[in-house]
C-alpha cells in the first residue's frame, strides 16, 4: 500500500473538513449559548416568537412541492430525450440552459413573470381567460411561485440524472415486456421506475438538500412573507447582528431537517442498490 | 413518434419562456414592460436605451470585477486542491476512495447559511470580512467536491500501464505528472475549472454574508431590484447571463448525469 495517493487527497479533504465541519459544529454549539455565555435553550425558546413553526412548515412544503415538480418534469424531459427525433440535439441544449442562468437572475425573471400588476403570467391569463391573479395573496400561492421558479432552474440537473439512469436500462427489457403485452404505462411502472430507484435516490438527495437550502429565490420573490427557514435565519442574522445566537438556533433547526431528510431518503432508496 | 414532438415542444417552451421574458424586459421600452398593466408578449418597441442607461452607471463595473476576481480565484484554489486529490483518489483502491468521495459529497450538503454565519464572525476577527480572498475561500467549499469528482473520473480513465511504464523508465512523480498525466487530463481539468468558475459566479449566499456592502454582481442585482432600480437589475442580469450561457454550451458534454451518479454504479 503506497502512501503518496493518501497524501495527495489529504489537503482537499482537510480543507473541506476545516471550513465545513468546524463552522457547522461551531454554529450548533453557539446556538446553545445564552447572552451570558452559559449553555441553555434560551435561543430556541426565543425562536418561538419568530414563527419558527411556520417557517418549518413552509420549508417542508416548498421542498416536497419543488421535488415533486422537478421529478415529474425531469421524467418528461428524460423520456422525450431518450427517444430519437429530429431536433433532439437542439432540445437537449435548450433543456440545459437554465443550469447556466444565475439563481438571482432566475428569481428576478420570475418576479417579473408573476408580478401582480404588470406580470407576464397575468398577460397570458388575461388574454386567454380574462382573469387576473394575485400570486402573493395566500402563503400557498406565494410558495407555489417559489417552487415554479426553483423547478425551472433545477429541473435540468434532475433530468440529466434520470436520463443517465434510463440509458443504463437494457432495451431488451422493454422489447420483451412489449411482446408480453405491457403498455407504456405498465412498462414505466414495472421496468423504468424500479431500475431507476438508485438514480431517483441520488436526484432526491442532491436536490432535496438544496431545496431545504434555497435562499436567493425566496428572498427575492417573497422576501419574508411567508418565511422559509433560510430567509428566517438571514433575517434574524441581519436584525440581531452582532448577536448571532438566535440566527444560529434557526440554522441548527434547518440542519436537523436536512440530516433527517438524508436519513429518510437513504433508507427509502435502499442506499447503494447493489 | 408524434408524442415525442409534442413533448419536445412543451419542454422547449417551458425552458425558453423565462429567457424570452428577460429579453423582452431588457430590450423593450419600459412603457410596455414594467410600467404596463399587461406587459406585451411581443418585441414591439425594441430599444437599446435600457442597457445603455443602466450600464453607464459606475455602480456596475466594481461588482463585475469582484465577481470575475472571485470566480477566477475560486477556480485556481479549487484546481490546486482538486488535481492532486482527484489523482490520489483514482489511484487508491475503491474501498478507500469511496468513503472519501462520500465525505466530500456530504460536506457539500452542509447549508451555506449555517456555515456562513460562523465563518463571517471568524473572518471579521481575521480581517477577511469584505474581502474577495475570504469569499473565494468560502465558495471553494461548493466547487471543490464537484471538481474532485470530475478529476477523479478523468484520472481513472488514464490507464495506469502508461504511468507504470514511465516509472520503469525512471520518471519520478512530478515528471510523470507534468509530462504524462496532466496533458492527457487537460480536458477534464479545463472542465473542472470552468464548472468551478460558473458555480462561483452564481453564488449568492456566501457573498451576501461575507461581503455584504461592496459585493459581487449577484448581490448587487439583488439590492438594485429591492431598491426599485428594476431596469438596472434587468440589464445587469442580462450581462450576467450571457457569458454563462456561452460557457454552458461549451461545457455541455461535461454536464452529464453520469458524473453525479458515478458513485452508485459501482
TrEMBL record, chain A:
InterPro entries: MetI-like (IPR000515), MetI-like_sf (IPR035906), Sugar_ABC_transporter (IPR052730). It comes from the Archaea. GO terms for biological process: transmembrane transport. GO terms for cellular component: plasma membrane. Its main location: membrane. The keyword NAD does not apply. Keywords: Membrane, Transmembrane, Transmembrane helix, Transport. It is a multi-pass membrane protein. The keyword Methyltransferase does not apply. Residues 56-265 form the ABC transmembrane type-1 domain. It is found in: Cell membrane; Membrane. The chain crosses the membrane at residues 7-32, 52-78, 90-114, 196-222, 244-266. Belongs to the binding-protein-dependent transport system permease family. PANTHER family: GLUCOSE IMPORT SYSTEM PERMEASE PROTEIN GLCT (PTHR43759:SF1), TREHALOSE TRANSPORT SYSTEM PERMEASE PROTEIN SUGA (PTHR43759). This is Sugar ABC transporter permease. It comes from Metallosphaera prunae.
UniProtKB/TrEMBL annotation, chain B:
Its main location: membrane. The chain crosses the membrane at residues 6-28, 40-59, 71-89, 101-124, 136-156, 177-198, 204-223, 230-251. Keywords: Cell membrane, Membrane, Sugar transport, Transmembrane, Transmembrane helix, Transport. It is found in: Cell membrane. Residues 64-251 form the ABC transmembrane type-1 domain. One of its GO terms (biological process) is transmembrane transport. InterPro entries: BP-dep_ABC_trans_perm (IPR050901), MetI-like (IPR000515), MetI-like_sf (IPR035906). GO terms for cellular component: plasma membrane. It is a multi-pass membrane protein. Belongs to the binding-protein-dependent transport system permease family. MalFG subfamily. This is Carbohydrate ABC transporter permease.
Amino acid at each position: 500500500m503506497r502512501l503518496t495517493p493518501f497524501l495527495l487527497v489529504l489537503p482537499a479533504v482537510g480543507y473541506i473538513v476545516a471550513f465545513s465541519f468546524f463552522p457547522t459544529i461551531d454554529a450548533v454549539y453557539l446556538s446553545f449559548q445564552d447572552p451570558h455565555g452559559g449553555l441553555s435553550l434560551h435561543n430556541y425558546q426565543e425562536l418561538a416568537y419568530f414563527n419558527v413553526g411556520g417557517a418549518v412548515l413552509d420549508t417542508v412544503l416548498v421542498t416536497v412541492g419543488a421535488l415533486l415538480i422537478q421529478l415529474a418534469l425531469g421524467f418528461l424531459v428524460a423520456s422525450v430525450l431518450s427517444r430519437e427525433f429530429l431536433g433532439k440535439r437542439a432540445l437537449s441544449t435548450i433543456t440545459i440552459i437554465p443550469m447556466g442562468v444565475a439563481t438571482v437572475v432566475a428569481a428576478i425573471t420570475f418576479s417579473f413573470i408573476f408580478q401582480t400588476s404588470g406580470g407576464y403570467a397575468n398577460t397570458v391569463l388575461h388574454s386567454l381567460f380574462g382573469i387576473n391573479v394575485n400570486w402573493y395573496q395566500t402563503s400557498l400561492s406565494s410558495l407555489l411561485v417559489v417552487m415554479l421558479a426553483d423547478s425551472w432552474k433545477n429541473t435540468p440537473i434532475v433530468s440529466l440524472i434520470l436520463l443517465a439512469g434510463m440509458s443504463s436500462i437494457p432495451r431488451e427489457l422493454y422489447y420483451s415486456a412489449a411482446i408480453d403485452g405491457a403498455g407504456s404505462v405498465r412498462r414505466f411502472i414495472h421496468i423504468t421506475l424500479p431500475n431507476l430507484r438508485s438514480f431517483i435516490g441520488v436526484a432526491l438527495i442532491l436536490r432535496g438538500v438544496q431545496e431545504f437550502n434555497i435562499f436567493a429565490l425566496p428572498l427575492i420573490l417573497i422576501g419574508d412573507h411567508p418565511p422559509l427557514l433560510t430567509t428566517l435565519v438571514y433575517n434574524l442574522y441581519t436584525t440581531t447582528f452582532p448577536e448571532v445566537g438566535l440566527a444560529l438556533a434557526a440554522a441548527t433547526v434547518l440542519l436537523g431537517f436536512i440530516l433527517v431528510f438524508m436519513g429518510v431518503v437513504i433508507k427509502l432508496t435502499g442506499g447503494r442498490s447493489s | 413518434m408524434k408524442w415525442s414532438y409534442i413533448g419536445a415542444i412543451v419542454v422547449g417552451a417551458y425552458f425558453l419562456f423565462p429567457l424570452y421574458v428577460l429579453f423582452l424586459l431588457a430590450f423593450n421600452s419600459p412603457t410596455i414592460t414594467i410600467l404596463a398593466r399587461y406587459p406585451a408578449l411581443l418585441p414591439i418597441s425594441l430599444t437599446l436605451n435600457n442597457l445603455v442607461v443602466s450600464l453607464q452607471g459606475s455602480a456596475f463595473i466594481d461588482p463585475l470585477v469582484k465577481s470575475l476576481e472571485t470566480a477566477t480565484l475560486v477556480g485556481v484554489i479549487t484546481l490546486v486542491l482538486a488535481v492532486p486529490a482527484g489523482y490520489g483518489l483514482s489511484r487508491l483502491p475503491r474501498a478507500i476512495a469511496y468513503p472519501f468521495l462520500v465525505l466530500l459529497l456530504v460536506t457539500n450538503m452542509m447549508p451555506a447559511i449555517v456555515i456562513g454565519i460562523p465563518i463571517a464572525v471568524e473572518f471579521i476577527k481575521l480581517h477577511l470580512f469584505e474581502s474577495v480572498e475570504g469569499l473565494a475561500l468560502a465558495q471553494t467549499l461548493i466547487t471543490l467536491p464537484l471538481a474532485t469528482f470530475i478529476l477523479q473520473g478523468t484520472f481513472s480513465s488514464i490507464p495506469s500501464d502508461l504511468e507504470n511504464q514511465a516509472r520503469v523508465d525512471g520518471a519520478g512523480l512530478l515528471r510523470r505528472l507534468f509530462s504524462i498525466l496532466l496533458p492527457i487530463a487537460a480536458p477534464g481539468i479545463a472542465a473542472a475549472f470552468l464548472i468551478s468558475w460558473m458555480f462561483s459566479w452564481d453564488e449568492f449566499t456566501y457573498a451576501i454574508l461575507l461581503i455584504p456592502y461592496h459585493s459581487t454582481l449577484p448581490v448587487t442585482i439583488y439590492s438594485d431590484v429591492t431598491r426599485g432600480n428594476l431596469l438596472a437589475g434587468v440589464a445587469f442580469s442580462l450581462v450576467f447571463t450571457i457569458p454563462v450561457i456561452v460557457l454552458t454550451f461549451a461545457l455541455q458534454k461535461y454536464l452529464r448525469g453520469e458524473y453525479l451518479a458515478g458513485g452508485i454504479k459501482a
